[in-house]
Design brief:
heterodimer; A: 114 residues; mainly beta; four-stranded antiparallel sheet; 11 strands; 0% helix; B: 115 residues; six-stranded mixed sheet; 12 strands; globular
Chain lengths: 114, 115
């Protein structure tokens, strides 16, 4: 079974702190994604990566950065956390290409910024 | 830009009855894929069913079927014989193959199954 693991289920941080959210997948997927989920808005793409050291901005990249030094690991970084970044963060991975390339998701990290 | 609309923020269904969750999409492209995911309270997104834009038959996976009406740009999820474990958030998503293979999600529908 595909496994996407996010390092924390719940996280509480202070405004201005630097925050790292880690995601690891074990299926040798090229593509990895970070989403944030807010009620009524569904999932919105923050950043994605289609290869090691490659990254592309999604729909809402402001206030975030990412790092992908190894194929299996994709990190989301909040350089200076703000209260409007309180949200659920979901990591996903998939093979590239068209057709049924399912994105597999981690269990999510619920981040609260106080 | 692609857009996915789920017009039902919340729905109730009686156990063992069928339920339809609505999804409409907007795209100018001919090649795309439609996905449904389930998110139980545990938080993990679970893939349910997929429909390609060129697939002629409606997709089915066990108790899940996708009512795909291309001309109306709708991709409704039908769950037959609802079970208590079906209570969850359900998200419709579209992958536009001409837009970098990204998934665009709708706002979700919370389904609650009554015993």
């Amino acid at each position: 079974d595909v496994k996407v693991t996010q390092s924390s289920r719940y996280l509480v941080k202070r405004t201005g702190e630097k925050v790292f959210l880690e995601c690891v997948q074990d299926m040798d997927h090229e593509n990895m994604f970070w989403y944030r989920q807010d009620p009524g808005l569904g999932l919105r793409l923050i950043y994605f990566s289609y290869d090691v050291k490659m990254k592309e901005k999604g729909d809402i990249p402001e206030g975030y950065s990412v790092s992908r030094e190894k194929k299996e690991r994709f990190s989301l970084i909040l350089e200076s956390a703000s209260t409007n970044q309180t949200s659920m963060y979901l990591c996903a991975s998939s093979f590239p290409g068209q057709g049924l390339n399912i994105q597999y998701f981690g269990a999510g990290t619920r981040l609260s910024v106080l | 830009a692609q857009k996915i609309t789920q017009t039902q923020p919340g729905m109730f269904v009686q156990e063992k009855e069928a339920v339809t969750l609505d999804c409409t999409y907007d795209t100018s492209d001919q090649s795309y894929g439609l996905f449904w995911y389930k998110q139980p309270s545990s938080g993990e997104m679970i893939f349910l069913i997929y429909q390609g834009s060129y697939d002629e038959q409606n997709a089915t996976e066990g108790r899940y079927s996708l009512n795909f009406q291309k001309a109306r740009k709708s991709a409704n999820l039908v769950i037959s014989a609802s079970q208590l474990g079906d209570s969850a958030m359900y998200f419709c998503a579209m992958r536009d193959y001409n837009a970098g293979n990204m998934l665009t999600f709708g706002g979700g529908t919370r389904l609650m199954v009554k015993p």
